[in-house]
Inverse folding.
């Protein structure tokens, strides 16, 4: 009997991240925008832009900017080699600068990375990766919002049980639920947009004083971050933020809110699509390896998984805010992987949420049938208010308590039992006990929510 092959730990089987265990974000726009090749591209873009900014201010010849730009081709660099050599100095910028300087050549090589520190380049590259990922995430949020708006408008009068603490409470309408989902998506969109517009370059030199640029001839070193930002389409920071990590914390918060907002939609769909409930269903469920009959709510499952991971990743990034001195040891390094994971999770969840919302199937007939599961008791709140003027508050409460017990024991509807009460013969009990007629301002609230753009 032949033993199964065991991959060589140093071989090609482990060289690439195939995202085998990450179906939530694999294949999404965020996946390609956050991969090693994307980060390498951002690092090279940051280096090339720095030389261009110095050339624009007369601190480097234009030919140097051209030479660095031409050499900064990601295809010419070995990401795997850079990763291995990053162990020597603790970050990938150090070996990248060596390779880029060599590629530029002797004449203009000295202008590569001139005056900058590794954190300047890596932080700026991180902002570029974030910007490019968020630019891909926002259209998926727009798709989700649009689909939910259509569902809310279509179902503004579709009654269903409202549930609190897992139990039927009072009736609501599905349109209001969809409008609430949409409100969360818009909240996420607004936060992502604000953070995207504020992403800054990083440029401070060795200890955040821009001193080296003065040594290279800059009469106004403070102008350099502004020129640098202009080259990259990012914001110019007021101060170097090597240990002032608000941009990272704000990004973490926006991504965690986004994952959580989409997670709320997902967990509601997971609940409402249970076999025993069946009020909604994903447009195309996933299969099971063992049970051919199943159509699992896979999109919702993956979104819910992302929402559960995001808070802990954000917590790591918030934990890096206390960064000591002018350059931290460890606090900065702890940010890299969780931030990339957050971008991937939020981006993948946005992709899945768009597919979920656009394909969601709603079953109004099932919702309507479920309103009768409590034998009419779902409108007991309304009856308490309506019967009090007729019977008196104490008598109304006593009667409803008694009839509620009888409704379950005798499997009769509350309306039928109320019809036997002589004092109530003049009331329109059919109207008073119809759950569809006790949805309050749900439709109006739905309309109000849809006014938000």
């Amino acid at each position: 009997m032949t033993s199964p092959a065991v991959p060589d730990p140093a071989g090609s089987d482990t060289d690439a991240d195939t995202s085998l265990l990450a179906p939530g974000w694999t294949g999404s726009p965020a996946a390609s925008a956050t991969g090693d090749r994307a980060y390498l591209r951002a690092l090279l873009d940051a280096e090339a832009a720095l030389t261009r900014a110095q050339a624009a201010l007369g601190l480097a010849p234009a030919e140097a900017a051209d030479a660095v730009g031409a050499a900064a081709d990601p295809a010419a660099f070995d990401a795997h080699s850079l990763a291995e050599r990053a162990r020597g100095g603790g970050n990938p910028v150090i070996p990248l600068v060596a390779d880029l300087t060599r590629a530029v050549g002797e004449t203009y090589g000295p202008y590569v990375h001139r005056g900058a520190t590794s954190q300047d380049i890596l932080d700026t590259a991180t902002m570029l990766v974030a910007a490019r990922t968020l630019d891909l995430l926002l259209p998926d949020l727009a798709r989700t919002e649009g689909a939910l708006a259509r569902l809310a408008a279509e179902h503004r009068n579709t009654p269903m049980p409202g549930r609190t603490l897992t139990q039927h409470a009072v009736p609501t309408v599905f349109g209001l639920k969809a409008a609430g989902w949409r409100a969360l998506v818009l909240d996420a969109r607004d936060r992502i947009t604000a953070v995207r517009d504020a992403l800054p370059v990083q440029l401070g030199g060795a200890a955040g004083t821009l001193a080296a640029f003065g040594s290279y001839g800059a009469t106004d070193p403070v102008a350099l971050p502004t020129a640098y930002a202009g080259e990259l389409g990012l914001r110019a920071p007021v101060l170097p933020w090597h240990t002032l990590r608000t941009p990272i914390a704000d990004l973490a918060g926006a991504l965690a809110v986004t994952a959580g907002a989409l997670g709320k939609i997902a967990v509601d769909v997971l609940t409402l699509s249970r076999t025993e409930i069946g009020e909604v269903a994903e447009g195309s469920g996933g299969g099971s390896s063992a049970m051919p009959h199943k159509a699992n709510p896979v999109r919702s499952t993956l979104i819910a998984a992302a929402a559960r991971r995001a808070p802990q990743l954000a917590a790591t990034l918030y934990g890096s805010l206390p960064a000591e001195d002018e350059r931290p040891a460890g606090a900065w390094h702890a940010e890299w992987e969780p931030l990339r994971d957050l971008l991937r999770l939020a981006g993948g969840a946005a992709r899945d949420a768009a597919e979920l919302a656009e394909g969601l199937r709603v079953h109004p007939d099932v919702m309507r049938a479920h309103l009768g599961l409590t034998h009419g008791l779902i409108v007991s709140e309304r009856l308490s208010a309506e019967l009090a003027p007729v019977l008196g508050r104490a008598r109304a409460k006593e009667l409803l308590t008694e009839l509620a017990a009888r409704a379950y024991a005798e499997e009769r509807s509350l309306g039928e039992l109320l019809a036997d009460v002589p004092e109530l013969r003049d009331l329109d009990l059919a109207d008073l006990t119809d759950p569809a007629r006790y949805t309050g301002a749900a439709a109006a609230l739905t309309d109000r929510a849809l006014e938000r753009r």
Notes: Residues 376 and 414 are 5 Å apart (CA to CA). The radius of gyration is 30 Å. Confidence is low (pLDDT under 50) at residues 1-15.
